[in-house]
Amino acid sequence: MNAPLLFSGRRRILFAGLIGAALAQAVSLAATAFATRAAFSWLDETGKIPPFVLCALAGAGLAMAVIRPLFRTLAEDFGQDYARDVRLALFDHTSRTAASELKKRRAGHMAMRFIGDLAALKNWPGLGLPRLVQAAALLPAAIGVLFCLAAPFGWTGLVMTAAALVALLAGAKSLTASHRLLRARRAQLAADMAERLPLAPQLAALGRRARELRLIRKRSAALRRVALERVALAELLHGLPEALVGIAAAVILIYGSRAGLASGTIAAALAALGLSLYPLRQAMGVVNHFAAFRAAHAKLAAAFARPLRADSFRDLRLGRGPLSLSLSLPDITPLTLKPGEDGHLPETASSIVPILSGHDAAPVDGVALGGQPIGRLTLGSLRRNVAVIGPRPAVLRGSIRRALTLGVLDRPSDETIRKRLVVQNLGPVLEGLGGLDRRIAEGAADLSDADRVRLAALRAALGRPGLLVIVANLPDLSIDVWARTHPATRLWIVPCRHPDAAFGPTIRSLH
């Protein structure tokens, strides 16, 4: 999968609207300049300004006032539409990426994809590109008006615009390099903070508080230097148009007065020159947005380059009920279970868990579930038939109810949930967690390891899986009894030495 195309779908229509709005602004600019000349000409000749000239002047200004928010709204819609597609594509790609690949990435870097990089990706189509379109329409219109008023005026505007573009191109390389370095250091610092903040008390207890503070100061100082350099260069480019327009205005006044041109012609030239200042300044900011876009797009392309699970080959479905399981993998004791049987593996074999749950790529012939190679089973079949009981269940922030029914298409009612758990003698476990309405944090971070295991067990009980994978010590008798009497095939992944006597025969059989 690749990053979404910038010009696709409704964005083509939005971009056409941007071009139309920019051309309308150019027409309004020309109308303003010529109406200004007509007003001064009538004023010089008759001492009065006809109503139609005043209406034309006011109408051109009103049109500019109406078109500008329309243009900006279209630009924002263009950027937001692209950002939405990037979010969807990135989440979809990440959801189909092998879990082993995601573990290689720091959580802070993943967060930057959805915050810093996404903002840069949105700002180019939402700000930079529209400003480029606007400048491409308004600047030629302003130069054309100046040529119509007087050839020297046109050459003055042309030289002014050319000087601005030369300065822009000269600063583009330095600005792009500075922007890339700034984004890299900002991402590094953000990732460091995201990694260290949750561990701050533990790091302090390990005597690393002063060292971590020095590291943050050092990287913050490096970020500050690059940020100041970029801001200074960007603002220098932004301020250049004012200097160029001021020089061009002086040239127009000097030439117009010496050539004896009518005051209306000079005023019209100054109006056109003044109206060209805004798009000229906007053009100077284009490089900044484009540099950020290129840096973020490179990171996005790298994210999309991560290998995916072979979901396209998953085409077999399983029926419900206990399933047979066959494991034949390197470094894991071969194991074959008939439907409803128990099997045991040491915790060193816990790498099999993401394969059984469909989170990671499966070897071609090493794992079979229900007599079928697991690599060919649909993710829906794995979701419905495999349940994992462990201390790290996938949980979004919300209620216990939400945690228990996460991934369920037809969410059962509260009464149905309670009845199912009571029938399986797990009602007290639910009440011990605080009931369905209790609010818990993301990842159930505010629960103990034992309570997270209980939560995972309740979710498994509601799902009625064909294979139950248990990778944790069961925290109470009710869960232990339910798991051992559940009709599903059960795969126990246990520590090599366990204080619970119930695991004694299993542990002895592993040595």
UniProtKB/TrEMBL annotation:
<dbReference type="InterPro" id="IPR011527">
    <property type="entry name" value="ABC1_TM_dom"/>
</dbReference>
<keyword id="KW-0472">Membrane</keyword>
<dbReference type="InterPro" id="IPR036640">
    <property type="entry name" value="ABC1_TM_sf"/>
</dbReference>
<dbReference type="Pfam" id="PF00664">
    <property type="entry name" value="ABC_membrane"/>
</dbReference>
<feature type="domain" description="ABC transmembrane type-1">
    <location>
        <begin position="13"/>
        <end position="292"/>
    </location>
</feature>
<dbReference type="InterPro" id="IPR039421">
    <property type="entry name" value="Type_1_exporter"/>
</dbReference>
<feature type="transmembrane region" description="Helical">
    <location>
        <begin position="51"/>
        <end position="71"/>
    </location>
</feature>
<feature type="transmembrane region" description="Helical">
    <location>
        <begin position="132"/>
        <end position="152"/>
    </location>
</feature>
<feature type="transmembrane region" description="Helical">
    <location>
        <begin position="233"/>
        <end position="255"/>
    </location>
</feature>
<feature type="transmembrane region" description="Helical">
    <location>
        <begin position="158"/>
        <end position="176"/>
    </location>
</feature>
<protein>
    <submittedName>
        <fullName>ABC-type multidrug transport system fused ATPase/permease subunit</fullName>
    </submittedName>
</protein>
<keyword id="KW-1133">Transmembrane helix</keyword>
<dbReference type="InterPro" id="IPR027417">
    <property type="entry name" value="P-loop_NTPase"/>
</dbReference>
<keyword id="KW-0812">Transmembrane</keyword>
<feature type="transmembrane region" description="Helical">
    <location>
        <begin position="261"/>
        <end position="280"/>
    </location>
</feature>
